[in-house]
Amino acid sequence: MHTARTDHRIKAVGTVVPSDIGAAFRSFQPDGPAAALDAMAAARTAENRTGHVNRDTWLPDTLDDARAAGITDLDTTQAITFYRTERGRHENSTNRRLSRGDALLLGYDPFHLVDELMTQPLQVVLAGRLGTTGSYEAGMKLWKLAPNPIDLMVIDGAGHYEMYDVPEYVDAAVDRLAAFYTDHL
After folding, report:
1. How do 122-127 and 149-155 pair as beta strands?
2. N or C: which end of the chain has fewer CB within 10 A?
3. What mean pLDDT is reported for the chain?
């Protein structure tokens, strides 16, 4: 979305389980995003003074680590079983992020100006099982903002991470996207 709204060489846009990582990241801040930005600024200053680079973990590395931390949320455990196992893990993934980049995540909005700038036809495919990823809500927000929405598909029973590689859900999305692109490219 971020690129398509400002690069109209892209003729049609299809998205599957879109997310708004900025909104999600803002929602995780217990004292609110403004207080988090203040804390992040102080941490960056300390990093510059000490030379110590702080890296935070994205997800627990294992399901055992998640259980030990009291994390039982279905979407989080599915993320772990996708990203932290052979199923979806990449050999270069450290599962760590530079903390100093968190301020950029807090301020990110992938849908900013979509309503004014994105002219392309839009296909949105959503997982029907609402969870904690926010992708259903993000997809509906995008659908409502887009000036040229063409097709909205909700795949009943699917969760966000199941849309990555569960054949029955992926096949349904790919079939719908293929028809969309055949019509609009």
Report:
1. parallel
2. C
3. 95
Question: How would you classify residue 32: left for phi > 0, otherwise alpha for psi between -120 and 50, otherwise beta?
Answer: left
> pTM, whole model, 2 decimals?
0.90
Tokens of 171: 């096949």
DSSP assigned state of 155: E
Do 181 and 125 touch, CB atoms closer than 8 A?
no
- Are the C-beta atoms of residues 43 and 49 closer than 8 Å to each other? no
pLDDT tens per residue, range 82-106: 999 888 999 999 999 998 899 999 9
- 3-state helix vs strand vs coil in the chain, percent to 5: 45, 10, 40
Q: How far from the centroid of its chain's Cα atoms is residue 144's Cα?
A: 18
Return the pLDDT at 2.
Answer: 87
For residues 120-128, give the mean pLDDT: 98
Residue pointed to by tokens 């309503």: 115
Q: Distance between CA atoms of 143 and 13, rounded to whole angstroms?
A: 12
Query: In Å, how far are 66, 109, 140 from 60, measured between CA atoms?
Result: 5, 26, 29
Longest dimension (CA), the chain: 57
User: Shortest CA distance to 41 belongs to which of 103, 98, 91?
Assistant: 103
Residue 165 confidence (pLDDT): 94
